[in-house]
Amino acid sequence: MHNEKYIIGYTTTDYLLLDLDNTTFNKVCGLVKIMQKDFKLGDCLISCSSDKVKKSFIENCLEKQTQGNYHCIFNNKIGYERICQIVNILSDLSILEPDYKLIREWRGDITLRVSPDNSKEAFRDIPKPIIILDSFNDNNDDGIQYYLNCLMVVNA
Fold first, then answer.
1. Which of 46, 50, 28 lies closest to 126, judged by CA?
2. Where are the domains of the chain?
3. pTM of the predicted protein model
4. What is the pLDDT of residue 59?
5. How far apart are CA 87 and CA 53, in angstroms?
6. Of 16, 41, 46, 111, which sits with the fewest C-beta atoms within 10 Å of its C-beta?
7. Which DSSP string do the residues of 103-140 spell out, in sequence order?
8. Of 11, 21, 14, the residue nearest 95 (C-alpha)
9. Residue 118 and residue 120: Cα distance in Å, rounded?
10. What is the pLDDT of residues 22-33, one digit of tens each?
11. 26 CB-near residues (< 8 Å, 6+ apart)
12. Are 77 and 151 within 8 A, CB to CB?
């Protein structure tokens, strides 16, 4: 059982992690496919980071017009300098919140929540992996596996 005062995160300086809030599943998939091609990021795990509508968690995430919150975990090791370049581009295009860019610069790493969160006005459950988008690239590293290992250990 998690202490409700603590939120546990998965942190890396090697693999790109994105926190995409208030968007649709279709938009997330479209963005991921463009990024896989243009930035050579490898496969991508998309997880629902919280549900906003009282349907089943997966139904809510897959509903085309429902705004949701998503985490994207890319598989290829690209290093922190390249991560910052991509985050800056996405922030400048208003795809990521401006705070996401500022936090990266301040902390010097990139982190996604892997535990429940009781700290805000509404409970947010454990992020739920829903799909891996294949980049059809043989040069895939272990970014997704490292994230999933952390997710499983924290929530065992």
1. 50
2. 9-154
3. 0.85
4. 62
5. 28
6. 111
7. HHHHHSSEEEE-S-B-SSSS-B---EEEEEE----S--
8. 21
9. 6
10. 898 999 999 999
11. 64
12. no
